[in-house]
Write a structure and sequence with these properties.
By secondary structure, the chain is α/β, with parallel strands linked by helices. It has helices spanning 3-8, 29-37, 67-76, 108-116, 147-154; strands at 41-44, 60-64, 81-84, 96-100, 122-127, 158-167, 175-183. The protein is built from five helices and seven strands. The protein starts with a helix and ends with a strand.
């Protein structure tokens, strides 16, 4: 099964958030991500809309490749906008595109094409960095990367503006990094 097929299947829903944990990133994460992302946010890979509740419905759009996940998000948060997107179409332009723990599921050979779809002047990538976390032969596959690999994939359209690291309580002594890219 391809990575896209995995996430489009209902099977992919089980892997969106660790079971039984609303905020595996820590209780302060909703305030943090809302403050960092700001207003007018496009969430790339919104899944069931877990992060949508952090944002004003009038300032948020969620997109995902899974029709089933988008359907669940619409039921959970009917005041927010959620759309199913194909794997190659351009994305809506907002002030900020947020990709929280989603780009690590894009195979290396597809990352450049995925980044080329972004149209916002600012992109936030939030995930556990480091190739030691890679699991390319499991479901779901994980293509964790180093910050430099993301900087390379985003160039020349975007430059790395900042990097913020926070503890990730779900895994002992693990950190989640938020990379902020700005359009050149």
């Amino acid at each position: 099964m391809s990575t896209l097929d995995f996430w489009r299947s209902e099977q992919g829903l089980e892997h969106i958030t660790p079971r039984g944990k609303q905020w595996p990133e820590g209780d302060g994460f909703p305030r943090f991500i809302r403050r960092i992302a700001g207003e007018n946010v496009l969430e790339f890979g919104c899944g069931i809309g877990r992060l949508a509740e952090c944002f004003d419905p009038a300032q948020y759009v969620g997109v995902d490749v899974s029709a089933h996940a988008v359907s669940l998000a619409r039921k959970r948060l009917p005041q927010h906008l959620f759309f199913v997107v194909g794997d190659s179409e351009k994305l809506p332009t907002t002030t900020t595109t947020l990709a929280h723990t989603v780009l690590l599921h894009i195979p290396d050979g597809h990352l450049g094409a995925t980044v080329a779809r972004f149209t916002s002047p600012r992109v936030l990538v939030s995930e556990i960095l480091g190739r030691a976390w890679r699991r390319t032969d499991s479901d779901p596959p994980a293509f964790n990367r180093e910050a430099e690999e993301y900087a390379s994939a985003f160039a020349p359209r975007y430059k790395l503006a900042s990097s913020t690291t926070r503890p990730y309580p779900h895994y002992t002594e693990t950190y989640m990094t938020l990379l902020e890219f700005e359009a050149c």
